[in-house]
Amino acid sequence: MADFTSIRPNTLIQSAYGQSKDLKAATEAQPEKAESFGDMLRAAAAQSAETVRRGDEVSTAGLTGDASIQQVVEATMDMESTVRVSVAVRDRIVEAYQEIMRMPI
């Protein structure tokens, strides 16, 4: 079995860990304020758009030689997973809407 630990640099792992700690601290700091479903969807859509935009910028930088191939591949994989999740969520929302429309009044 191959060892894949060398694929992701330790700095990325440490950065992700640090961001998750900040997210947990922010969540614990405001337990009384509940976020609405619409606000959650809006924030997720904005984050998805930002991920795709950042991936596009890295891809462009890769074409000009300002970014490494690994950075381009990582950005492309992030973009692909974001688009897949967005499409899956959209499909579920459409299914739920259609189910509601079929309900008898």
From TrEMBL:
Record-level GO cellular component terms: bacterial-type flagellum basal body
Keyword check for Isomerase: no
Major subcellular location class: other
Keywords: Bacterial flagellum, Cell projection, Cilium, Flagellum
Pfam families per record: FliE
Molecular function per GO: cytoskeletal motor activity; structural molecule activity
Subcellular location: Bacterial flagellum basal body
Gene Ontology process terms (BP): bacterial-type flagellum-dependent cell motility
Family to which this protein belongs: Belongs to the FliE family.
The protein, known as: Flagellar hook-basal body complex protein FliE
